[in-house]
Amino acid sequence: MIAPLRSAALHWTGVLPVAAVVLLALTWGRALPAVLVVLVSLFLAGAVLAAVHHAEVIAHRVGEPFGSLVLAVAVTIIEVALIVTLMVDGGDKSAALARDTVFAAVMITCNGIVGLSLLIGSLKHKVAVFNAEGTGAALATVATVAGLSLVLPTFTTTTPGPRFSPPQLVFAALAALALYGLFVATQTVRHRDYFLPMTTAGEVIDGEDHAHPPTARGALLSLGLLALALIAVVGLAKAVSPTIESAVVAAGLPSSVVGIVIALLVLLPETIAAARAARRDRVQTSLNLGLGSAMASIGLTIPAVALASVWLKGPLILGLGASHMVLLALTVIVGDLTVVTGRATPLQAGVHLALLAAYIVLAVSP
Predict the structure, then answer these.
(1) Exposure of 276 by Cβ count < 10 A (0-12 exposed, 13-18 middle, 19+ buried)?
(2) What does each of the 366 residues of the chain score in pLDDT, given as a tens digit?
(3) Membrane spanning segments where (predicted)?
(4) How far is CA 227 from CA 55, 217, 269, 341, in A?
(5) How far is CA 242 from the centre of its chain?
(6) Strand 343-344 to 128-129 pairing
(7) Are 63 and 206 in contact (CB under 8 A)?
(8) DSSP helix/strand/coil, 344
(9) HSE, side-chain direction, 13 A CA sphere, residue 282
(10) pTM of the predicted protein model
């Protein structure tokens, strides 16, 4: 028992998260020269791959949909810490950072991860099959919380600008947290079968029969290494964020592009894991990762930012602009039409990816 654990710990997926955290400790709070930025970026990419590996080990041990939930929640908790840290350091210029990052996460997950998963699944297996009941419930929850947290502030009148008043912010935070808790309970307890992968014939797959699951000690080791890898991913992303911000300013791009880059970096582990699941004809697992990450991003970020606003200086802007509200509405409508049948072709995948492309183009050129 000890030998396999020692071998797993000495594998590159065990060594790299530890090395990445050491590099993070050595570079934290320092201005990085170009050479160190390249080195940090390489370790960041390695930490992402290690996180995906350990997430898949845990998922194999605990089964679906618990495996997808572990990765989504772990990534989002550290993402929240990154957002709050950047807002504390940024002052007034980061007033819209939480909104930009959360909305970027919604667009990347609901259109990017979902579209990529459907494309891979439908091209490899002719049609991508998933459970419409579970996927539809997840999409409805994402749409509701996104509307309450990101759309309503644009139209409220108590506080000037696209902002919530303190009571409104408390309500939005509690509603997001309550709906996320209800979603997790539905996904893991009461209607777990709605979130299990399905075969092309429509049969539910409960468990994998091609390999033995890892031991409990092996899964715990992977859980610890996953935590280290995710801390490294977010910490190193913060380390290179000044370079990203400088590059965005030098290129004359809007500040919202910073939120997109942060969301892309943080969501990279889920994206890779979802693509791998789709290749194995586990499209439901991919959708659990995508929509679960969107739900976790809003459901945990908004309450955390609301709590942090007690000591944060400056305004907290949450309301979306007109073009982003149109994109959110299109995402919800197209998502509903995609999931209603429980089957998708490359056409539906292309529509979602086109919406993501439109979001990126409009972010770069509003």
Answers:
(1) middle
(2) 444 444 444 577 888 888 888 988 888 777 778 788 888 888 887 887 787 778 778 877 776 667 667 767 777 776 777 677 667 665 666 778 788 888 988 999 999 999 999 999 999 888 898 999 889 999 999 999 999 999 999 999 888 878 888 899 999 999 998 998 898 888 888 878 888 887 666 666 665 544 566 777 888 888 888 888 878 877 887 777 777 777 777 877 787 787 788 778 778 878 888 898 898 888 998 998 889 888 888 888 888 888 877 777 777 888 899 999 999 999 999 999 999 988 999 999 999 999 999 999 998 887
(3) 9-28, 34-54, 66-87, 102-123, 135-156, 168-189, 220-241, 247-268, 289-311, 317-340, 347-365
(4) 10, 15, 12, 37
(5) 22
(6) antiparallel
(7) yes
(8) strand
(9) 25
(10) 0.80
Backbone φ and ψ for 315, nearest 5 degrees, come out as -75, 160
Please, where are the H alpha helices in 11-113?
Answer: 12-27, 34-62, 66-90, 97-107
Angstrom distance (rounded) from CA 241 to CA 97? 13
Dist. CA 219–CA 70, nearest whole Å: 12
Report the interhelical angle of 268-279 vs 114-125 (nearest 10°): 20
Q: Which domains does the chain have, with CATH numbers?
A: 2-364 (1.20.1420.30)
| Rounded-to-integer distance, Cα 164 and Cα 150, Å | 10
User: And the tokens for 253?
Assistant: 């791009």
